[in-house]
Write a structure and sequence with these properties.
Blueprint: E1 4-8, E2 13-16, H1 19-22, H2 28-41, H3 101-118, E3 121-124, H4 134-144, E4 150-153, H5 159-165, E5 171-174, H6 181-186, E6 189-193, H7 197-203
Parallel strand pairs: 1-3, 3-6, 4-5, 4-6
Antiparallel strand pairs: 1-2
Helix pairs in contact: 2-3, 4-5
Length: 209
């Protein structure tokens, strides 16, 4: 039995979903690896500190070698001095985790299939939004009756849809090119416009394994 999704915004109807994408097996370990990789890729890794070689000053010995009763010191840039460098300081680093393209696509199909199987996936008819209307978008989601947060995937050219949904609380609007597995997993409901659906299928690797 083919999986179907409700069409919102137009006449009450259903649309058949592609079985190769929306009836795929959900593999939790692949989803976990992909979400972890996406979240790590978003980290900037710019934390850092100065070593003793980067701290200014301290060109001469703070006191003479002998006769002071204190331990010998070569520079005030050493870590034991206030304002000195840090021993083994953290620096620029990358948190990237490699996930094969085949595994990433499988995780994406599995996340989409979970929404399709649970009935939390719907297709939006963008013709219902002739002008931006947050009130209309809120009423549409209320009529759908799904729990928030809601992820709305719209085509880049569908400006009226983007402007209608972007100011709603606990609603995230994105485009197919920037759609990630982490966002699909985070959302309790997924709403995709008719023109964005083919691009989502392409991103999921339709016809590829």
């Amino acid at each position: 039995m083919a999986v179907k999704a409700a069409v919102l915004g137009g006449k009450a109807s259903d649309v058949a979903l592609d079985a190769s994408v929306f009836e795929a097996e959900a593999k939790p370990h692949l989803v976990h690896e992909t979400v972890r990789a996406e979240l790590n890729a978003a980290r900037r890794g710019t934390r850092g500190a100065k070593s003793r070689g980067l701290v200014a000053g301290g060109r001469s010995k703070p006191w003479r070698q002998k006769g002071t009763g204190r331990a010998r010191q070569g520079t005030i840039r050493a870590p034991q001095f206030t304002g000195g460098g840090v021993a083994f300081p953290p620096g620029m680093r990358s948190f990237d985790v490699k996930v094969n393209r085949k595994a990433r696509r499988a995780a994406f199909r599995g996340a989409l299939s979970s929404h399709a199987a649970n009935g939390t996936l719907a297709v939006l008819d963008p013709s219902a939004f002739e002008a931006p209307s947050t009130k209309q978008a809120k009423a549409l989601l209320a009529g759908w009756g799904k729990d928030a947060p809601v992820l709305v995937v719209a085509h880049e050219d569908e400006e009226t849809v983007v402007k209608s949904f972007r100011n709603l609380e606990r609603v995230l609007v994105t485009v197919p090119a920037e759609l990630e597995v982490a966002a699909v997993v985070w959302a309790r409901a997924l709403l995709v416009t008719e023109s964005a659906l083919p691009l989502v299928l392409q991103r999921a690797g339709k016809g590829q394994r």
